[in-house]
Description:
Layout: E1 17-21, H1 25-36, E2 40-44, H2 50-57, E3 62-64, E4 78-81, H3 86-98, E5 102-105, E6 118-122, E7 125-129, H4 135-151, E8 165-170, H5 181-189, E9 192-195, E10 212-215, H6 227-239, E11 243-248, H7 258-267, E12 272-275, H8 280-287, E13 300-304, E14 319-324, H9 330-339, E15 347-352, E16 360-365, H10 369-376, E17 382-386, E18 403-404, E19 412-413
Parallel strand pairs: 1-2, 1-4, 2-3, 4-5, 8-11, 8-12, 9-10, 9-11, 13-14
Antiparallel strand pairs: 6-7, 14-17, 15-16, 15-17, 18-19
Helix pairs in contact: 6-7
Amino acid sequence: MAIQDIYPTALRLLGRPVLVVGGGPVAARRAKGLLDAGARVTVVAPVASDALRELAGSGLLTWEPRAYLSSDVDGVWFVQTATGVAAVDAQVAADAEAQRIWCVNASDHESSAAWTPAVAVVDDVKIAINAGGDPRRAMALRDAVATALETGDLPLRRRRASTGSVALVGGGPGDSGLITVRGRRLLGQADVVVADRLGPRDLLQELAPDVRVIEVGKTPGHHPVPQLEINRILVEEALAGHRVVRLKGGDPYVLGRGGEEAEFCRQNGVEVEVVPGVTSAISVPAAAGIPVTHRGLAKGFSVVTGHEELSEVPARPDHTVILLMGVAKLRESAAALADSGMPLDTPVGIVENGYMPEQRVTIGTLATIAEQAEATGVANPAVIVIGDVVRVSPFAPEHFKTADYSTLTPNKPRVVTP
């Protein structure tokens, strides 16, 4: 049988009787697949595997513990042979052929009237692949296609009207490789994308031409689309039957107002899913080699967005302070921390455009950082890290690196190799 001889189709076997001849692992796998399709399964085999016995014992299928009889094919819609004995499988296939019943002969794929494809299910999409009778090749192709669908490299987007929904997707700090697999898949299914200024903007170029992108990006102090209007857009588009992705930078629930958006959707009867993202508060410092906690240096950290909150956080170099959207008020923030007792020689790092080609790192102290930032033109998007953890960064000046901050010998003198 050549692959050109096959007419691909899908059988709807719900409630229909089918026959499996054989009791081994292959028969068990095929019986399980037929049960998943809703078929009424009868297994004929003198001996059955534990898996088949369990299915029979739970009443999910009927097991006839005997040898095959030609009359077993009477009245069934589909037959699967899996005895491992070529002569028996051939007899079953011949009996099925005589009654014009489709039969898969596991012993001889060349003469089999039907083939069982390699199958995977992603959401409500079922993938079935035949590969010229080569099952391992078919499974490899199936897995590759399923992975591409799972990761969003292939579109899962519906083309027919369906119930609308909203997904709040955390896109991470901006690099398209740092969005989650779930977020990438939902983006590939979207009819409408409501996009922030930050996040993985490159992925918008990969959307289908008819996917609408609604820009609602904000900058510090400038909100061209107010939050209430964003909430209204999400609900309106979902109630129109669209799959809506709210693509946000970082994580939707870390200073991203995702909680407000989710609450508004639910109040208006719209299904909403929240997909966590890699928050810039942690990931952007990491892009500069700065851990927000480090053994021997810092056991905790605080994330704030303005100098007003700084009086509430521990003003110690061993407690990391992360400022988001803090460039404009950096001088005031540094002064507030100093007034609270933070030493003026505490290291400070600023990471602009983390993970992007234009990433830039500026490192100074609490006493000098505001002047440095103004002199070099530091601008948002940027994350400001204050604390001794900045000493670990490979961008830190040598005089900051006064100790070995390994996990084995913290705070012992650094050994400098000539």
